[in-house]
Amino acid sequence: MLLTASSSSVSRVAYHRLDRYNVSSLKCPSSHQKEWDSDKVRETGFRVKGGAHLADTDLTYDVIVIGGGPAGLMTAVAAAEQGARTVLIEKGNRLGRKLGISGGGRCNVTNAKPLSELIENIPGNGRFLHSALNRFSNRDVMAFFEGLGIALKEEDRGRVFPVTDKAQTVVKALVNRVFEVGVDVWEECRVSGLYIEDTHQRDSEQLENPQVRGVILADKRIVRASSVVIATGGASVPATGSTGDAYPWAKRVGHTIVSPYPTEVPLTSEEPFIRNRTLQGLSLRSINISIFLQGKKPKRLTTESGDLLFTHFGLSGPAALRCSHYVSTARRKDSQCSLLAQIDILPGQTTDELLYELKSAKESEPRKHIHNLLPRFVPDRLADVMIHLCDIAQDHPMSDIKNAELEALVRHVKAFPVEIKGTLPLAQATVTGGGVSIREIDPRTMASKVCNGLFFAGEVMDVHAHTGGYNITVAFSSGHLAGTSAAEHALGL
Q: What is the pLDDT of residues 200-231, one digit of tens each?
């Protein structure tokens, strides 16, 4: 059951169109404007394209948020709700671009499963997020958006969507909230690095005892702040602006970067039936797929459930994507390792039950050919491949099929083998693995342990989750904690 806004600490606000604020008419303060009308700023922030109207002198805020994706937007809202003077800097020309294409354009805003199950669906350092998820849980995410006037619905596997089935409903409401709480937004404005203080100022690649004091824009101007939150995302889906910009910034102040790798991405294979496109376009519903690390003693890395799609390059669909973390991780440890996928096409039937049915069919329909009978259990094209792999003549009647051959067919139905080469590249992944090492981030605040005043949110960190509302929950929860913590640091709370 979805929570209503009244059951949350999130205050209910009116849901208005963004153009209510007429933000395009608002200008940044000039260099002579030393005092801002704080009441007006808190009522509504302003929006600037490309920084064209920014003052020539340095601007000062309490909190700077870099990145206008789901993590950055939530970070900015949380910081401003604490009373911090906040600016959100986005290099693209539109906020929430990745959010707008998520969930197949419907925006899977979160997942309604219990916290323990949420953590299980965050294979990339899920335990690190215990504090963030306790502070701002999936239930809080739902209450937050319901408080913005968005009706939500829960679908299969706990996935939560807006009733409108339109991602733009979520994007507009969240961006609207950004302006409502007085966040200033600079779009088409690039950050080139962090502005820091260092006990030993020098031009080396890494600084000692750094203290963040703001950011440096691409045009060399400096924007000052006591707290800076990096929420630039990873390096997947680069068309949305996630291009790994922040990794060198974090590295220069002392952070370790875990090399980015693709997750939630299709798997590749060079099996003949893949290369020949024999099974291309064939979809299987509600299967189980296991990934094994081959060797003297094969090791099962994971078993996932869901739908599967055969493609011209390998395996796709939700079940395959959920396996990709384990495939990528194994390949990173040993690029030459041998990986095998085994697909249980009928997980609802045991091996013995299926074998009994085939033997019964052999007795009751001895003249029927195997290639006409097996499609009762699996799709035609897959049946033909299985018969070929088991070295059974397709034109043989059931009476000529040996029990050992039936057992081989059953093994293929329950564990259809596909050798896995790897995954598609990072640019084609839905989610990025790797990023800023969590060992150098305080899980209670999302604050850097090596650079005072620096915070992180979302996929820029070495955390990632499955699709299905989990990864976006990571963005919202970590963003809310980072924004709150950054504001408290800046305001001395």
A: 455 556 666 789 999 999 999 999 999 999 99
With H, G, I as helix, E, B as strand and everything else as coil, classify residue 344: strand
Residue 445 neighbours by CB distance under 10 Å:
19
Question: Global pTM?
Answer: 0.85
Q: Do domains 5-261+432-491 and 266-423 have the same CATH topology?
A: no
Strands 222-230 and 59-66: parallel
Q: How far apart are CA 142 and CA 482, in angstroms?
A: 19
Is residue 257 within 8 Å of residue 247, measured between CB atoms? yes
- State the Rg of the chain over Cα: 26
Q: What string of DSSP letters covers 264-282? A: S--EE---HHHHTTTTTT-
Name the residue among 209, 181, 199, 200 with its Cα closest to residue 65. Answer: 181
For 406-422, write each residue's pLDDT tens digit: 999 999 999 999 999 99
Q: What is the residue type of 418?
A: V
3-state secondary structure of 143: helix
Per residue in 385-394, is it b (16+ CB within 10 Å) or e — as a string?
A: bbbebbebee
CATH superfamily of the domain spanning 5-261+432-491: FAD/NAD(P)-binding domain (3.50.50.60)
Separation of alpha carbons 140 and 110, rounded Å: 10
Name 456's bridge partners: 230
266-423: what fold? Helicase, Ruva Protein; domain 3 (1.10.8)
> Contact at 8 Å (CB) between 370 and 396?
yes
Work out the pLDDT band at 237, boundaries 50, 70, 90: confident
